[in-house]
């Protein structure tokens, strides 16, 4: 019988101070894991650390880390391993999105998103595999992709579409290369979630009427906890033979033609 018990495991979540990242920190702790998480929002990070440690009774600790900075990433991973002893599970969740008309979108805007959303998962995974998973006989990685990696919109975020499309390719490449170390790599792609960082900041996206009139077949946005099931499966020891896959948790959005 599958139990999805993470007792004795250590997880690392990037971008865990709020939104979906905070959900992953809480869910992993509720499944029994001790959880390290990083972000660049120190005030929110420290508040999340305190709140979720008290709520779950598990060891939860926050690190300041910019996932685009190679030295910061290597140092953060080293400190997490020193503090927790290992890293068994990794969720690459940290993300960024900037808007602007594609014809006037600057290179700076482009690189800010590419560096955070695509280069970041590569850097963090590299250090976690090198510093812990290779030495400990394997592990599990989930890269958070997006429906935006599968189709375009006129929202004015070309770098986000490119970065999330790149994450889909990164999942495949990592799965093949890391298999020899016993590391399974998969992706989970959210549609619109009410507790997602971008959605919660938008009056339009957070309005239920927006989704009732939209093309998502379920006619609503996702809510807290509805993304974590897929993440938990991919990270669990019960997942022994699935790697290089991406599942869209989007209410059917990417299956709809109109």
TrEMBL record:
SUPFAM superfamilies: NAD(P)-binding Rossmann-fold domains. The keyword Oxidoreductase applies. GO terms for molecular function: oxidoreductase activity, acting on the CH-OH group of donors, NAD or NADP as acceptor. Signal peptide: none annotated. Keywords: Oxidoreductase. One of its GO terms (biological process) is bile acid metabolic process. InterPro entries: NAD(P)-bd_dom_sf (IPR036291), SDR_fam (IPR002347). Belongs to the short-chain dehydrogenases/reductases (SDR) family. This is SDR family oxidoreductase. It comes from Christensenella massiliensis.
């Amino acid at each position: 019988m599958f139990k999805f018990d993470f007792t004795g495991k250590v997880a690392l979540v990037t971008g865990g101070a709020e939104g979906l990242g905070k959900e992953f920190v809480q869910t992993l702790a509720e499944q029994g894991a001790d959880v390290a998480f990083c972000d660049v929002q120190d005030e929110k990070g420290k508040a999340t650390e305190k709140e979720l440690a008290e709520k779950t009774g598990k060891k939860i600790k926050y690190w300041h880390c910019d996932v685009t900075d190679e030295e910061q990433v290597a140092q953060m991973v080293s400190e997490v391993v020193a503090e927790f002893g290992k890293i068994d599970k990794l969720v690459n969740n940290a993300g960024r999105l900037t808007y602007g008309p594609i014809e006037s979108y600057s290179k700076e805007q482009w690189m800010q998103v590419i560096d955070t959303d695509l280069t970041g998962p590569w850097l963090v995974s590299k250090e976690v595999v090198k510093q812990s998973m290779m030495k400990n006989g394997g592990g599990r990685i989930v890269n958070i992709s997006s429906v935006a990696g599968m189709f375009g919109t006129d929202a004015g975020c070309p770098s986000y579409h490119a970065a999330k499309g790149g994450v889909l390719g990164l999942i495949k490449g990592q799965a093949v290369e890391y298999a020899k170390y016993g590391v399974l790599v998969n992706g989970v792609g959210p549609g619109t979630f009410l507790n997602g960082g971008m959605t919660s900041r938008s009056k339009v996206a957070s309005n239920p009427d927006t989704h009732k009139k939209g093309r998502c077949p379920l006619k609503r946005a996702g809510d807290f906890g509805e993304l974590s099931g897929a993440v938990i499966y991919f990270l669990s020891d019960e997942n022994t033979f699935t790697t290089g896959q991406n599942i869209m948790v989007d209410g059917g959005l990417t299956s709809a033609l109109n």
